[in-house]
Amino acid sequence: MRKVSRLSRFNIASLAVGLAFLYLPILILVIYSFNASRLVTVWGGWSLRWYYEFFGDRAMIEASWMSLRVAVASATIATLIGTLAAVALSRGERFRGRTLFSGMLYAPLVMPEVITGLSLLLLFVALNAERGFWTVTIAHTTLTMCFVAVVVQSRLGSLDRSLEEAAMDLGCAPVRAFLSVTLPLIAPAIVAGWMLAFTLSLDDLVIASFTTGPGSATLPIRIYSEVRLGVKPEINAICTLVIALIAIVIVIASLASKLSSSQGESAAPL
Amino acid sequence: MSVRRIFARPARFAAIAPYVWMVLFFLVPFGFVLKISLSQTAIAQPPYEPVFDLTAGWTAIRAAFAALGIDNFRLIASDDLYVFAYLRSLTVAATATALLLLIGYPIAYGMARLPKRWQAVAMVLVIVPFWTSFLIRIYAWINILQHDGLLNRVLLALHLVSRPVVWLSTDTAMYIGIVYSYLPFMILPLYATLAKMEPALEEAASDLGAPPWQVFWLVTFPLSLPGVGAGVLLCFIPIVGEFVIPDLLAGSNSLMIGQTLWLEFFTNKDWPVASSAAIVLLVVLLLPLLLYERLQRRQLEER
Q1: Measured between CB atoms, which of A84, A227, A270 is closest to B14?
Q2: A266, pLDDT greater than 70
Q3: Which residues of A touch B184 (CB under 8 A)?
Q4: Which residue in chain B is spatially nearest to A246 when comparing CA positions?
Q5: A239–B133: do the CB atoms touch at under 8 Å?
Q6: Which helix or strand (DSSP H or E) is residue B41 part of?
Q7: How large is the C-alpha radius of gyration of chain B?
Q8: Which of A115, A143, A270 to substitute to test the interface with B, most B CBs within 10 Å?
Q9: Are A196 and A144 contacting, i.e. CB atoms less than 8 angstroms apart?
Q10: Complex ipTM above 0.95?
Q11: Which candidate among A88, A172, A181, A207 keeps its CA 20 to 30 Å from the CA of B144?
């Protein structure tokens, strides 16, 4: 007979407190973004005032647009290259330089951002590249493709390889077997990887600060310079909009991974 | 298996594009950091010298090499500001990682003991904040911790304090921010090992008469050590180089190394010293980085 429940009161309490700790600050931020009062701490009734203010703020809108473009471009390139890297690592068996390859892919996941940002900037300066949209995009691609590679690789690792092998036994060429058997199976993980890359790029402050040029600030750079001057209700509104955008992305990603888990083990999120 | 080997060949070709990309944009840039860390600051564009000019001929390149020196590293080693910044970064990272482990473990343990259905829900709930913007989450805490913020008003209303407490620009605020931001990184690897653990082991220990704390300390905790290792490294390494959290939440009287690097670069425009600081930081983190890399590879490849 199975034990009824292994869940103790202590377990439930620590879960509840932990989740409250994770969510309350964000919840408070969202609620206060609808505050009519200019004083961030005094509640003056519900209002959309700060959202109007944001949409009237040209610099903020421009920065948001820049961030969105960078996020879409870098996430797309990162997903392409990151998926290739995952395929090479989980299906390529042994090849020369494999250790260096996996090392280069895993290191940026934990590498302090100040180091990555500084080193990329020095490269761009040495190459005499004009800093702006493309330099930030390349920098974000370098960081986020590693996350994509890990997500896709963990899906590839949990995949039943006999499916690919069956296709090849039936006369499929390897590339065709990959395209028509493996790729559809890992598609949800690829989608989730794109979403993760998108949100990471949208979020990054440090690397973007190093690699961008004058006149092309991203949204986090703008938010950061405002936040340093103090709390402003308009920032609450912008943050809420970003959270809403990311929430939509998460819903799509979780639908994708639900698809993936209905076909087998779910792809690890990290 | 031969079919596998046939499949492996084109799969290896897939490595070419990411390989070239990472060598070009991850490995090669470190060469530039190293080179500029050995250069001198100059009031020029770019603000360092010598500048290598490959078209200038062999003697010019030799002269440029000769102009490189380790002065910046001497400066960092002799300047208390840097030594303290490194020490502070390591202390903050170690303290914060210990806090994260203490707070994250019970949460991960609770998750692993939930019924299977609820485990998936709890996992999504822990991951979602990781997807929300880092900067926004720190900003949310500024809202709460400021002088007339929510925390002080709650404390005043409950008569726990008689006047507002200063939270912002303190180490307490910084630790709250770090723990808040990195908690998912600690919980997820812990949960992954705890969830895989055979419940029969704990049951056997308690059937044999071990009190709960002994079951935990002699069975559960030792078995979860791989998860502890992953979580600790996943938090410790980036926290050492953290910039945003100490910059926005901690006071400005003692800086972490990420902040000094940022200041040297953006405020003082001293690129060579900033590069040297980055190289030293990299050396400090080399051992944890190598450990982490081995752990990650084993986890993803030895299934």
Answers
A1: A84
A2: no
A3: 22
A4: B132
A5: yes
A6: strand B40-41
A7: 25
A8: A115
A9: yes
A10: no
A11: A207
Q: What is the DSSP letter of B224?
A: T
A93 pLDDT more than 80: no
In percent, how much of chain A has pLDDT > 70? 91
Span B112-166, pLDDT tens digits: 888 888 888 888 888 877 777 778 888 888 888 888 788 888 888 888 888 888 8
How is residue B40 annotated by DSSP?
E
Is B301–A122 a contact, with Cβ atoms under 8 angstroms apart?
A: no
Question: Hey, are the CB atoms on B133 and A203 less than 8 Å from each other?
Answer: yes
Chain A interface disruption, residue of B39, B143, B201, B207, most A CBs within 10 A:
B143
Query: What are the chain B neighbours of A90 within 8 Å (beta carbons)?
Result: 300-301
Paired residues of B48 in beta bridges = B41
- Stretch B204-223: mean pLDDT: 86
Give me the mean pLDDT over the A94-123 stretch.
89
pLDDT tens, residue by residue, A165-184: 888 888 888 888 888 888 88
The pTM for the full model equals: 0.87
Q: Give me B51's structure tokens.
A: 């500048």
Rounded Cα distance, B21 and B241, in Å: 24
Residue B96 has what pLDDT?
A: 96
* Encoded tokens for B28: 């090669």
Tokens of B14: 């897939």
Measure the CA–CA gap between A225 and A216, rounded to whole angstroms: 14
- Taking an 8 Å cut-off on Cβ atoms, the answer to whether B10 and A178 are in contact is yes
